[in-house]
Amino acid sequence: MTQYQAKDRSLTVYLGGIAHVGAAVQLSGNENSMQITGIARTAMLDSLHTTGDDKVRVLEARVREETSYDDVAKQLVGATVTESAVGKDGDRYRVVAVKGEQAVLERNGLLYVESLQGFNAPADGITLNQKNAVELHVAGVPKKGADISLSYLADGISLTPTYTIAIKGSKLVLTAEIGIDNRTGKSFDNVALQVVPGEVGRPYFQHGYEPITVRKVVAATTMMSEEALFALDEMVAVKEEQDQIRYDFSARNVPEGSSKFGVFKTKPLKHTIGYTAHLREGTSQVSAVLRFAAPITLPAGAVAVFSETKQKDSKTEKYEGGSTLQTVLKNRRATISLRQPDTLDVRVLQKGETKIDEATLGEDGRAPVYALTRTYEVTVRNAGAGKATIETYLGLNIGEKVLACSISDHEKSTARQKRWDVSVPAGEKRRFTYTTQEPIQFRNVSREDIEALLRKGKRSSRQPR
């Protein structure tokens, strides 16, 4: 059985940890059984099929197991092996001859007869008992000198979209990269690389040789318009068609392990930064989000945001935050969380004491329900260089309500959450007040004890209705 080396031609990597490999094998004789090397160790042999010649199709593909040391004797002779036994790690021997599990080894002019069980030959790429060839049986006899095109799926290779955003004043520049983690046991050199940030389905067959089916793609979109193409530069060919997005990198090397490939870099895009403050029982939490329209479909991935400040002879970058970006369709709004802004300060202070008004008896007919009324003052300071509008939210407990507020409610306010939009000019501050009332039921506690607890700022003994 003649052994042939498969030459990789194309590699398509999908999001779900799987890849489609296209390879070619040039035959030297007329035969329908052969050994093929160069197939990925993680290949799914039930997906291996031929393409381009209907007269030649795969009947059977199985991994050739190296179960005997005789099978690799020719490879080992002349190789340098290292002793892996404890205490001798690093000693190097040259293999003079191999028979069965025994080998004649040479070191410093001395010969040794040893078992190869405790030796490795990493420098020569030889691993004993490795699955290193695929036996292929085909229907039809290929012509002598003909090329057979092979196609198969392989596990152990995954991709990760990553994005970097540089904020430059009122515009931003988005850079996209694809990280590929190749654990297939081989590298792919000078292949037509394509990346599909979706998933590939397992193959289906009719009569044993139908090509694979691709489904579960990232998003249903339309072809990119010329206008969208014009909005990008330094980009790989990006295609959005047949309900999937595809990046075409042309000829690339994909080594074993991790590697990164640049996809595109946009021209400056308009953006806005929104600020949010969440108020709760006299405290506040301020956050910021970045928003912009996606120039093309952006598959889900990690994103990091930096702001750039240029001085006379230097440029300063400052990390502004980042998160996981969910898939955003073309022309839809992308929203990215940023770190807490250091130019905004929101403080909440209670004005005066809590008022306690006894209302009605509780459901048990004994424990009274008190109405606790509080007034808070909110101060928003803006130390930034431009006007800031803060979406301010107040979460309310069950039964709690806002009796009064010095500013108008936003139209999206609800019974459980109030919203106020507070605009503050650069370098200034703004104050507003609101008053809440909340029904609280205390069991076996006097009114005097409640007042004492409230003065100490403790409410742990209350039991809400």
Query: pLDDT average, as an integer?
Result: 76
What composes the largest sheet? 7 strands, mixed
Our Rg estimate from Cα atoms comes to 34 Å
Report the top-level CATH class of one domain: Mainly Beta
Structural class: mainly beta
What percent strand? over 45%
Bulk shape: elongated
Secondary structure tally, helices? 3
Distance between the termini: 83 Å
Structure summary, number of beta strands: 32
Which percent bin holds the helix content? Answer: under 10%
Second CATH tier, the architecture of one domain: Sandwich
Q: Order of strands across the widest beta sheet?
A: 5-13-3-2-16-19-18
Instruction: Work out the oligomeric state of the chains in this entry.
Output: single chain
- Write down the CATH topology of one domain: Immunoglobulin-like
**Low-confidence segments, ≥5 residues, pLDDT <50?**
121-131, 199-230, 458-465
What is the topology?
Elements: E1 3-5, E2 7-14, E3 18-26, E4 33-37, E5 43-51, E6 57-64, H1 73-76, E7 80-83, E8 92-99, E9 102-107, E10 110-115, E11 119-120, E12 133-139, E13 147-155, E14 157-168, E15 171-182, E16 188-196, H2 226-230, E17 232-233, E18 237-241, E19 244-254, E20 257-266, E21 269-270, E22 272-280, E23 283-293, E24 301-310, E25 315-325, E26 333-338, E27 344-361, E28 368-382, E29 388-395, E30 401-405, E31 417-424, E32 429-441, H3 447-455
Parallel strand pairs: 1-4, 2-16, 14-24, 22-29
Antiparallel strand pairs: 2-3, 3-13, 4-12, 5-13, 6-12, 7-8, 7-11, 8-9, 9-10, 14-15, 15-20, 15-21, 16-19, 17-20, 18-19, 22-23, 23-26, 24-25, 27-28, 28-32, 29-31, 30-32
